[in-house]
From TrEMBL:
Organism: Drosophila virilis
Gene that encodes the chain: Dvir\GJ14023
InterPro entries: BTB/POZ_dom (IPR000210), SKP1/BTB/POZ_sf (IPR011333)
Protein name: BTB domain-containing protein
Domain BTB: 19-79
Organismal lineage: Eukaryota, Metazoa, Ecdysozoa, Arthropoda, Hexapoda
Pfam families given in the database record: BTB (PF00651)
Tree of life domain: Eukaryota
SMART domains given in the database record: BTB (SM00225)
Amino acid sequence: MSKWLVDTSKNLSNDSSFTDCVIIVGATTFKCHKLILSYASEFFKRMFLGDFKEALSGRIYLEDISPTTFKIFRDYIYTYDKNNLNECTTQTITDLFVCGNRWLVPSIIEDCLNILIERAKSMKVEDLIDLFELGHSFDSKSLIKEVSAVLTSKHYKYLFCDKVLQLSYHAFSEYISVTAKLKTEIERYKMIAKYLELNGFLDESTMGKETVDCSIKQKSGDFENNNTNLKKDETNEEQMEIIDAESEKPDCQRHNETYVQGLLGSINYTKMSGDEFYEGPGKSKFLTQEAKYEILYKIQSRRISRLNVLLNQYRAM
């Protein structure tokens, strides 16, 4: 936008002679032009053109934004001068990025995104994790990619700080994946277990799958030991009751179980030492006893294989 047009638009924003709508943020009112708002934002355009009371009254109440931030937003859509954004705090830029996504303003999304990506290079790890969450909240793949690059290249020692435990479950799952190559399996397990515990995934409902698995195996054992007293159709009925109980779980419970299983399934337990596995997953309720025995067997087998290789190398010397 040319300097003349910027100056003219700035004058227009300060001149209330031809304003035709009012934006109310808290106790502060902003006189605006419907044309300017509609041109900048698909959200405001639909509101003014739709069958809403705001279209008739010309008064729009906005929540979850401060008057200071809205004034910066208003000045921006009148001038599109992104240089003013560079003077804003990172928190304000974040708020404007959120507003741009909610109100469908592509230009301010892009300008704020570029500023956030540039500032990410010098941010602390806690602030980067906040940006990581922000990127997931609005599916900003470029923000997620850039923040992940800074985290893994400059802050790999502090990737599993307590701030990670505050991530939403979608963002946490992605974070565990992004940092997978920089942390040991036991470190990843401990972080996942702590996250699941602190965020309420370890109640009885989310542990249902293990309970069902154990119940099925216990029932099967009973049938085998007492097959002279039970008919085949009775066995099927018992098993079907267990399956029915599983299918009747609420969707949220099944979703939680799937999420927990997905996180734990991302860990390669056989890369742990025997002591690590015993003190961590071995004492948890996440795995069935049968799974624990299987994993310990594989850990021990790998250890024996490595010892055999070393022994053969020693003999060949």
